[in-house]
């Protein structure tokens, strides 16, 4: 692979592999993760270790 080739590094979740593609479509209005996945998983308050 040549360093002059341009593309996007993509991750194939099904096959757990990275690949390079120039044919990429971004869905910027669609969340990557489902919003319900993180409901109630806020940051915890810091703990004093002293």
TrEMBL record:
InterPro entries named in the record: SH3_retrovirus
Retroviral polymerase SH3-like domain ranges (all copies): 2-33
A Pfam family reported for this protein in Swiss-Prot or TrEMBL: SH3_retrovirus
Source superkingdom: Eukaryota
Protein name: Retroviral polymerase SH3-like domain-containing protein
Lineage start: Eukaryota, Viridiplantae, Streptophyta, Embryophyta, Tracheophyta
């Amino acid at each position: 692979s040549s360093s002059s080739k341009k593309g996007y590094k993509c991750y194939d979740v099904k096959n757990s592999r990275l690949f390079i593609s120039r044919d990429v479509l971004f869905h910027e209005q669609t969340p990557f993760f489902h919003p319900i996945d993180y409901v109630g998983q806020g940051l915890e308050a810091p703990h004093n270790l002293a």
